[in-house]
Specification:
The chain contains 23 helices and 25 strands. With 651 residues, it is of the alpha/beta class. The structure holds alpha-D-glucopyranose (GLC).
Length: 651
């Protein structure tokens, strides 16, 4: 390399060393491709190095470790199929691909949606018909037998669940989606593997190398010391964070269920394994990794062992590894943590913009449900308005529902700022969505009651939480209409926010709770399965039946997504500014774009609401054009009138 522009004096010699080490590996690679790899290595080596040094830098074998790592990356690149290498170049040229207003995500369990990976091929038209450009395939890699936390206890990261097909089916499916311009995302469960994974089995057998992949303790001394400050993720069915493994005679760290063994990321071998797995999956055509439960990757005594600074270093290094070896790939962080902790997953300070590309916007989801229950947007406006600014190169993963429960991540401070008791409001929301609050339209259920904190998380399908289940049972057409409007309000909100809207399978049809899980012994204790139904293909067919509930929801969602695609202001690089709508029932945002400003209004009440046209962020809306309904609004009276749960995107 002629001029190592991006390298510090400390990193430069190691870069030179690794660049030389990969030469024999890249021997058979076409000269231009070899050159591209070395250019990328040079360009991102500093990010890799800066991520690795705080974690592994003091080890005597650090140089050797980094060399092994870069050689592994070179092998991935060498083995990368030609069409993916072309995609790499395309993505080098369009690094904003996942931020674009054309992007729409769809999230589903392969098994629940189609049965198998091959059968999913039969539904490509359905997915594409909704305007989807990104699919998160859940539950793909081989989990442990029996209970497996919905596929989040992996027994083999290099193979798919045999019930879903063979590994080659995943490649075929990725190819088929890619041909249609749809990127495939799968879960990378990084914090833990299954107790039946060969690493865990070898650890039980005493093989020294693999025991060091986990946190194990001979007695309760350290577990008790950690427990003093550790919260519980599943207080109901998996209390405590450690599990006694009789054949090993040791305690193992198990943050989630007792069969999910936390990996010890202070061991560089774990890092190497994961990079190898990422390359293997990326070379099959996976384009986005959902980095599962990343907040938990690093443990520190005396803390809650979440969001430790080393987590962000590790993620930065993983990110850099992908940028070098498989640059088409993006990383999405699943960190369901408070706003002040969340922002670090995009990279702050020295890591600015270098960590995840996408992160779930948990607060947006929570605030949607909170405002919907209270018909009051003041907490939402305050909490989302106080969000720290994000780097321009990222996208929020915006969702209303997913496969997990809803935890009321509303701080006491935010609640107090709008005159609420945090505890009281969280209790209200649990009552409301479990249907216990008088007059509630919601049909959810409590998930994981924690008697120590009083927390009650909530399970339930979007439509059921939004009132559709109750309205249909009551055969009340007015209530049906209101609940459909609530569903569309949520979809418009995530489609209009700075990020990638993630539509959860069935929500585009208003699919409701499924109580069948209670009959399945592997699911019965976990009521999150009530909102993980099988795809109802009859309901999907009814989307073509004029006037049906499915047709009304589907057409509404499709219309929102089409409007999104013709609104360049919604590219995620243009941040969402939260503004005061001068009406406590209306949530308002601005998207400033070189073409002009988009003003979005969302009415969170079942009554018509009025917003003064002249005061929105100090700008006069003269002849506003609503992108959602493609019409001019009449504001001659000086007011914008919004119907029940109505939303407008005004230019
Ligand atoms: C993530 C998943 C959740 C799972 C947990 C442990 O939060 O979304 O379903 O239980 O990680 O892997």
């Amino acid at each position: 390399m002629q001029n190592a522009l991006f390298l510090s004096p400390e990193a430069a010699p190691l870069f030179e060393h690794t660049a030389a080490a990969v030469e024999p590996i890249l021997e058979g690679v076409a000269p231009r491709d070899r050159h591209l790899f070395l250019l990328r290595l040079e360009r991102y080596f500093q990010n890799l190095y800066d991520g690795l040094v705080p974690v592994y830098g003091r080890r005597p074998d650090f140089t050797d470790f980094v060399t092994r790592l870069v050689c592994a990356m070179a092998r991935q690149y060498r083995d990368r199929p030609e069409e993916l290498k072309l995609l790499d170049i395309e993505r080098d040229l369009t690094p904003d691909w996942f931020q674009r207003e054309s992007m729409v995500g769809y999230v589903f369990y392969v098994e629940r949606f189609a049965g198998t990976l091959r059968a999913t091929l039969e539904h490509l038209d359905y997915v594409a018909g909704l305007g989807v450009t990104y699919v998160h395939l859940m539950y793909v890699l081989r989990p442990r037998e029996g209970e497996n936390d919905g596929g989040y206890a992996i027994a083999d990261y290099r193979d798919v669940d045999p019930r879903l097909g063979e590994i080659d089916d995943l490649r075929v499916l990725c190819d088929a989606f890619r041909e249609r311009g749809i990127s495939v995302c799968i879960d990378l469960v990084l914090n833990h593997c299954a107790d039946t994974h060969p690493w865990a089995r070898a650890a039980v057998d005493g093989a020294g190398r693999y025991r060091d992949y986990f946190y194990t303790f001979p007695d309760r001394e350290m577990p008790d010391a950690y427990e003093r400050t550790l919260p519980e993720v599943f207080p109901d069915f998996a209390p405590g964070n450690f599990t006694w493994i009789e054949p090993m005679g040791r305690w193992v760290w198990t943050t989630f269920n007792d069969y999910q063994w936390d990996l010890d990321w202070s061991n560089p071998e774990v890092f190497l394994e994961v990079v190898d797995i990422m390359g293997h999956l990326a070379n099959l055509g996976v384009e986005v990794f959902r980095m599962d439960a990343v907040a938990f990757l690093w443990k520190r005594l005396g803390t809650d062992c979440q969001n430790q600074s080393e987590v962000h270093d590790l993620l930065q290094a993983l990110r850099a590894a992908s940028k070098i070896a498989t640059p088409a790939v993006a990383h999405k962080a699943e960190a369901i943590v408070s706003p002040s902790d969340l922002i670090h997953y995009f990279g702050t300070g020295r890591r600015y913009g270098k960590v995840a590309n996408i992160a779930y916007h948990n607060s947006l989801m929570v605030q949607f449900w909170s405002a919907l229950a209270s018909r009051d947007t003041r907490l939402m406006t305050h909490a989302l308005g106080a969000f720290p600014p994000t780097p321009p190169s990222i996208a929020w993963g915006c969702y209303i529902r997913g496969h997990d429960d809803i935890g009321w991540a509303i701080t006491d401070e935010d609640a107090a700022a709008v005159g609420l008791s945090g505890y009281g409001h969280r209790q209200f929301l649990s009552d409301y969505y479990s249907g216990q609050f008088p007059g509630s339209h919601a049909r959810g259920a409590v998930f994981q009651y924690n008697p120590q904190t009083g927390d009650r998380r909530i399970s339930g399908a979007f439509a059921s939480l939004a009132g559709l289940e109750a309205a249909l049972e009551a055969r009340d057409e007015h209530l049906v209409t209101l609940s459909i409007e609530r569903i569309l309000l949520g979809h418009a909100l995530i489609a209009g926010f700075a990020g990638l809207p993630l539509i959860y399978m069935g929500d585009e049809l208003g699919m409701r709770n499924d109580h069948g899980y209670q009959k399945d012994p592997d699911h019965a204790t976990d009521n999150r399965w009530m909102h993980r139904p099988r795809m109802d293909w009859d309901a999907a067919a009814r989307r073509l039946l004029p006037g049906s509930v499915e047709a009304r929801v589907y057409a509404g969602v499709q219309n929102i997504l089409r409007a999104r695609k013709r609104t360049p202001h919604l590219h995620a690089t243009y941040p969402t500014e939260i503004v005061d709508a001068h009406n406590p029932h209306v949530f308002a945002t601005l998207r400033r774009h070189p073409l002009g400003t988009l003003v979005s209004l969302y009415n969170f009440s079942e009554h018509a609401q009025v917003v003064p046209a002249e005061v929105l962020a100090g700008r006069v809306l003269r002849q506003p054009f609503d992108q959602l309904e493609s019409r001019f609004l009449d504001v001659s009276s000086g007011e914008i009138v919004l119907g029940p749960f109505e939303r407008v995107w005004l230019l």
